[in-house]
Design brief:
Layout (H helix, E strand, L loop, with lengths): L1 H12 L1 H5 L1 E3 L4 E3 L6 E4 L3 E7 L2 E2 L19 E2 L4 H15 L10 E7 L4 H11 L18 E5 L4 H14 L3 E3 L7 H6 L4 E2 L6 H12 L4 E7 L2 H16 L3 E8 L8 H17 L4 E5 L2 H13 L2 H8 L2 E4 L23 E5 L7 H6 L12 H9 L36 H23 L3 E2 L6 E2 L10 H4 L3 E3 L5 E3 L10 E8 L5 E9 L9 E3 L27 E5 L8 E5 L4 E2 L9 E2 L4 E3 L6 E3 L1 E3 L6 H26 L4 H4 L3 H17 L9 H35 L12 H25 L3 E5 L6 E7 L3 H24 L10 H24 L3 H32 L6 H9 L1
Parallel strand pairs: 4-7, 4-8, 8-9, 9-10, 11-12, 11-13, 13-14, 14-15, 29-31
Antiparallel strand pairs: 1-2, 3-7, 5-6, 15-20, 16-17, 18-19, 20-21, 21-22, 23-24, 25-26, 27-28, 30-31
Helix pairs in contact: 3-14, 4-5, 16-18, 16-23, 18-19, 18-23, 19-20, 19-21, 20-21, 21-22, 22-23
Length: 877
């Protein structure tokens, strides 16, 4: 392992000899200078690798690099603010007497040119003051480079780390990118001035869920970071019910070597834009990838332009809406209304004023400003070297604030803010080291010697624990992963008529917030594309399932593509796109549209409703009739027709029938505990007494007939003892059953929520179903016995033979209760109670009518027949 590391170190250290034409005997290097650099001397130097120059050249080796081979550079002019932020921070620190007193900071900035080889070369240039050096030898005039800031993208940062890691020079990356697993072991770690981009992966999902965008397209840069992003985000989207309509890769370049690359990319990527129903596109890549995307849009089919305007773009934090001078005339109208995550930033006091002082010749060391000024203002500076393709001469009085935002922003961007904080982090680290090192006098010169003997590797122990408040009042510190603590801003891109734009803050993503509150969106502040008729754009595979409908899967389609089916009976869907309908609680029921639950009303057979009034009237009427019959029989108690069949049994039967009619009223009204206890037990006992009386009367007729025969032994049974015994015995059996029922499992009031969909039925629960049907069964058995005896005795010769009438009455009685059971079981709610009341009234009326109406007719209408002589005459006949 040590041998491999030594070999790698030797290879990297020999790169300068490969990159330059080296005379090893004189330790001199003769090579073409890199055209863009900015050097400001100081006691301690901060290096910087920016990313803003794009050269169009063919494949070159290190030996071929010369300025003569370069075309005119294309500059991402907005990124010029990055190096201005570094210079502003250094100058601000140098003017601060409390921070690094007696020590000046300097800087040396190069560009990466978005090229791997040139990144290695410019990083090596940062390590040495002069260009006369030999690898592995340190000269007296070597730079005092203490730390380096860069790069913007992951590839640039890792290329820098390959070299800086060997020298243990702290590197502070200011771009947002993901640390791939392979990259973590590829080189020593570096400090990151922004939170890891993986923090906003979940924020991206929450953003899509907030707007209910479930059918989206994914456009990712075609490199390792884009592949990693796709591998992470696709399952994350799927877990939260979001589908990808398509996934496309965008070339990882800000330019192409020939038209073949352009045409090939357009032909492969145009179809998803044209045919996809997705309105929302998630874009992952850096600003140069955005430039490539813009080239594709502009050079694509003309029909695509209109479609693209009807898209909502979701951009990741790596993107700055910046264009090179070639694309600046196109503008960014295609991305109007885009929502993007941005590295958090704050406007700093003095920075805008500092930008207003920038002029073409404001400093001699700035090697970037010439190209920036000419390309930003589309003019040519006087005395510019080399041919210029730009018409017009710059006056030098142009103002940065007059440039559109795509060319240059006066507000500090997130990347510039990260660079500003990085400079201060280095300064506070040096200040901490200087404060801990004693200052002494040089014995020879007598001058005070300050802290100038630090090595870059000594900064690590302090830098990773540094914490301070910047001029904006925000705390700057690193976590244990060497990442800056912080948040992301959610921004909205609003295009202006002059091709400039405004970034409107519409939310915040705080990785350290409580779960579920990391993302905050101010929806009312968002400006959408004007072509959207809706207040909120939709991006779904199909129309939403409305309230009252549930999703229905489509075979062969992604789960985001579905049909809609009405909710089953008794269920609702109160939210759009519900997977399954839900049942209402027991005391509620669905409304007509099945989108909400309505409270059920409690229902019972009330005295006040028409059905209750009718049944009450019938019960009272029959009760009065029974009382009238009883009064007639008492008044005519000494007449033969009353005395013929035992007056006591007749009175008992009439009184029991009276109570039968009255007991039906117990079933009316809201069920109470007392009502429930009395309903079935009173009904069963009273009816048993009534039927027992009928049985006793029938048996009396039979015994009386049999006793008239000569020598009959039945004469001893004639009398009241037998009849009273029959009534008492039959009634006590039923009373015993009812008592056992009330003691073991009595009826109780209950609310039936299931029988009816829209009502809660207040009812008396039987308590024990077995006892309920036992009482009914015993009553039925008693009725059948009575019917049988009456049927057998119907033709016995007697002037006032009641057996015929009892037979008819018992036929009615049994018919009513035989029909009662199926009818009772087939009805629900209060109508079950009505059926039982009707059965009580009908069966009682049958007994009353068929047994007593003939007698009442004779007593009241035919009194001449109610005589002893008539009774004997009819018997003899």
């Amino acid at each position: 392992m040590v041998q491999m590391l030594n070999s790698l170190s030797l290879l990297l250290l020999l790169l300068p000899c490969i990159a330059y034409k080296v005379d090893t005997t004189r330790c001199t290097v003769r090579e073409s200078p890199v055209p863009h650099e900015w050097y400001q001397p100081g006691d301690f130097l901060i290096g910087g690798i920016a990313s803003q120059i794009i050269y169009h050249f063919h494949k070159l080796s290190f030996e071929d690099i010369s300025q003569d081979l370069y075309d005119i550079p294309q500059m991402v002019t907005n990124f010029y603010q990055h190096i201005l932020a570094l210079a502003f921070a250094v100058n601000e620190i140098n003017m601060n007497p409390k921070l690094l007193p007696n020590v000046t900071l300097g800087f040396h900035i190069y560009d990466s040119y978005y090229d791997d080889k040139l990144t290695y070369r410019t990083t090596l240039d940062l390590l040495f003051k002069s260009r006369e050096y030999f690898p592995n030898y340190e000269c007296d005039n070597q730079k005092r480079l203490m730390a380096t800031i860069g790069g913007l993208g992951g590839d640039i940062s890792f290329h820098m780390a390959d070299i800086l890691g060997l020298y243990k020079i702290p590197q502070l990356a200011y771009g947002s990118f993901s640390l791939l697993d392979g990259d973590k072991t590829k080189s020593p770690p570096f400090y990151r001035m922004v939170p890891d981009e993986s923090y906003y992966y979940m924020g991206l999902v929450q953003l899509l869920l907030h707007f209910r965008w479930t059918w989206v397209g994914l456009l990712a840069v075609s490199d390792d970071s884009g592949e990693y992003f796709s591998q992470v985000i696709e399952p994350l989207l799927s877990q939260h019910g979001i589908c990808l309509a398509f996934t496309e890769r965008i070339l990882n370049r800000a330019h192409w070597n020939d038209m073949f690359d352009i045409l090939n990319f357009i032909s492969n990527s145009y179809r998803p834009f044209e045919e996809s129903k997705a309105t929302t596109f998630v874009f992952y890549g850096e600003s140069r990838t955005l430039i490539a995307m813009l080239v594709f849009i502009v050079l694509g089919n003309s029909d695509l332009k209109g479609n693209t305007f009807r898209k909502v773009w979701i951009m990741t934090a790596q993107v700055d809406f910046s264009l090179s001078s070639l694309q600046r005339s196109w503008g960014l109208e295609f991305f109007h209304g885009a929502i993007f995550f941005a590295i958090h930033s704050q406007d700093l006091l003095g920075f805008r004023k500092f930008l207003k002082t920038i002029k073409p010749y404001w400093t001699q060391g700035d090697g970037f400003i010439k190209d920036f000024w000419e390309q930003a203002f589309d003019c040519s500076l006087p005395n510019s070297q080399g041919p210029s393709k730009i018409d017009g001469t710059c006056t030098g009085e142009e103002k940065l604030e007059n440039l559109p935002a795509s060319a240059f922003e006066m507000h500090m961007t997130g990347h510039s803010y990260s660079i500003y904080n990085a400079v201060y982090a280095i300064a506070y680290t040096l200040h901490a080291l200087c404060s801990s090192k004693p200052i002494h006098r040089n014995i020879v010169s007598g001058k005070r010697k300050s802290c100038h003997n630090f090595q870059p590797w000594q900064l690590h122990s302090v830098l990773q624990h540094i914490s301070f408040n910047n001029s904006a009042g925000e705390t700057v510190s690193f976590n244990d992963k060497m990442e800056m603590e912080g948040s992301f801003d959610v921004m909205n891109l609003v295009m202006l008529p002059n091709k400039s734009f405004h970034k409107l803050k519409v939310g915040k993503l705080d990785p350290n917030a409580l779960q579920g509150k990391a993302l905050v969106i101010y929806e009312d502040m968002i400006v959408w594309q004007q072509s959207f008729n809706e207040v909120l754009p939709l991006s779904v595979c199909n129309d939403h399932c409305h309230l009252g409908y549930q999703k229905k899967k489509k075979e062969g389609e992604k789960f985001c593509c579905y049909g809609c089916a009405p909710c089953p009976d008794g269920q609702i869907a109160n939210i759009m796109d519900m997977e399954d309908c839900i049942k209402c609680p027991g005391d509620q029921y669905p409304n007509k549209d099945q989108d909400q639950c309505i409270s059920k009303t409690i229902t019972f057979l009330s005295y006040a409703e028409p059905l209750g009034i009718g049944l009450t009237s019938v019960a009272v009427s029959f009760s009065l009739i029974t009382l009238s019959v009883l009064a007639i029989f008492i008044k005519h108690r000494d007449t033969p027709i009353v005395k013929a069949n035992n007056r006591d049994i007749t009175y008992t039967l009439l009184i029991s029938l009276l109570f039968c009619f009255v007991s039906s009223l117990l079933f009316l009204g809201q069920p109470r505990k007392v009502n429930c206890l009395l309903q079935q037990s009173a009904f069963g006992t009273i009816f048993s007494v009534a039927v027992s009386c009928v049985l006793a009367k029938t048996i009396t007729v039979v015994i009386a007939f049999m006793a008239t025969k000569p020598g009959s032994r039945m004469r001893k049974w004639v009398g009241k003892r037998l009849t009273h015994s029959i009534i008492l015995l039959c009634s006590l059996i039923q009373a015993g059953l009812c008592t056992w029922w009330l003691v073991t499992c009595p009826p109780f009031p209950d609310l039936d929520m299931k029988s009816l969909n829209t009502q809660i039925v207040a009812e008396c629960k039987e308590g024990s179903v077995i006892m309920f049907y036992s009482v009914l069964g015993y009553l039925g058995l008693l009725s059948l016995i009575t019917l049988t005896v009456a049927f057998l005795a119907r033709k016995l010769p007697d002037s006032f033979n009641e057996a015929k009438f009892i037979t008819f009455s018992m036929l009615v009685f049994c018919s009513v209760w035989l029909c009662f059971v199926p009818t009772y079981l087939s009805t629900k709610g209060k109508y079950m109670v009505a059926v039982e009341i009707f059965s009580i009234l009908a069966s009682s009326a049958g007994l009353l009518g068929f047994i007593f109406s003939p007698k009442c007719y004779i007593i009241m209408m035919k009194p001449e027949l109610n005589t002893k002589g008539q009774l004997i005459r009819r018997r003899n006949s």
